[in-house]
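Standup notes, protein team

Yesterday: finished cleaning the Candidatus Methanogaster sp. ANME-2c ERB4 set.
Today: Dihydroorotase structure.
Blockers: none.

Input for Dihydroorotase:
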Amino acid sequence: MADTIIKNARILWKNELQNVNIIVADGQIEKIGKTLSSDAEVIDARGKLVIPGVIDAHVHFRDPGMTQKEDWYTGSCAAAAGGVTTVIDHPNTAPPTLDKKSFKLKLKSAERKSIVDFGINGGVVPQSCFEELWSLGVTAFGEIFMADGELEISGKELEDSLGAIAKLGAVACIHAENGELCSHFTEELHRIRRPEVYSRARPNICEALAIEQVLEMQGVQDIPEVRDRGAEQAESGARDVSATQKVDVHARTHICHLSTREGVGVIRRIKYGGNEIPVTCEVAPHHLFLQYSDWERLGTFGKMNPPLRKRCLQHLWNALNDGTIDIIASDHAPHTEEEKRTDIWSAPAGVPGVETTLPLMLHAVKQNLIPLWRVIEAMTTKPAQIFGLDNKGRIAKGCDADLVIVDTKNVRAIKGEELHSKVGWTPFEGKEGIFPDTVLSRGEIVYDDAIACKRGRGKFLCGRGYVD
């Protein structure tokens, strides 16, 4: 017997917008059709669009260890209010998710607080417990940091890690910035305090070269134009930027937050150049909707890794539209206003975004920047495929009833004070978005113009390697 019926739902079905009723039973979609049942709760979606719940494959909910910035409850509330019904949390918490003890600590907090379903990624350092974490149910490994932070690893360590991840059949999520180049340029420029200098300290080539290095480790042929340019830019500084060993690894590689036209070029050549290396990539909303000129408005609040770019927006939009970029992920990385109000070198890198990604993208559809079907694919279907979330990302019989109901005519300005993240600010202040009216997770209303469920209802989604 049906629990809920979404009546008059306007969904994208077989490449056309059609009006249907979605019958939900036991948290899953039981049927899509025209029938109604007087016994079920009815939600009338007349005149509104219904899409699958968004899967955000890249969030940092800061819990455990940094809950002054965010925690699993506030982060998941922000997710639900933005139409995100599944998140994958990355490992750089305190402690980082590197072994059974740290994994269980994060899992316990998430199970007590999260209102949306979640996966947890395992961290990668030289002593990572790959097999242990995989059997515990991590979704993937990474971000694997090639630059910055306590989790940064060397080229040899990355090579070894990719080998271990490949043996498990897992996904390696790569933060692709060449660490030596970033360090070299930072050292040259660190006396300059203007915020925009940060983009110069991490130029486009740092990303492109890092992607090329990762893929070459797995047997992809050299990409000379990228390598030569990197060596030329670092001629007085970084050592061995072109030193990469080719090994037969073939890990399933996912490049996080692609941000440059050069990076797009490398991915495009790999995907369409006859190579058999399994590579996917994502783009973050801050690289689609913000650029170098926004430094003047944002100051240190615009600091992120990779940084704001010049003349890259159209290249990223083109790559997203043609499928070179597979998915959209927020890289939600909140910091408090107090932490951000300092000089550019001391301010932490990262911006909040889990609640505003879908609203920004739906407004982009309205502006004809991207078709609706591509937004749905890049935010629901594709991330489900990449990360093994078999019951997520589709409006289809047997799938979890993760549904977002939205009035596409309801455009409003984004205001940080109205968002649910603990930090209370957004780099997209004043930009227009289309926010959900109602959000269901496994058939339960979690958001209906306000948070509408209890903390802790979110479900841990075990990864492919999980051993009960």
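Follow-up from PR in the comments: The domain at 52-391+399-436 is CATH 3.20.20.140 (TIM Barrel).
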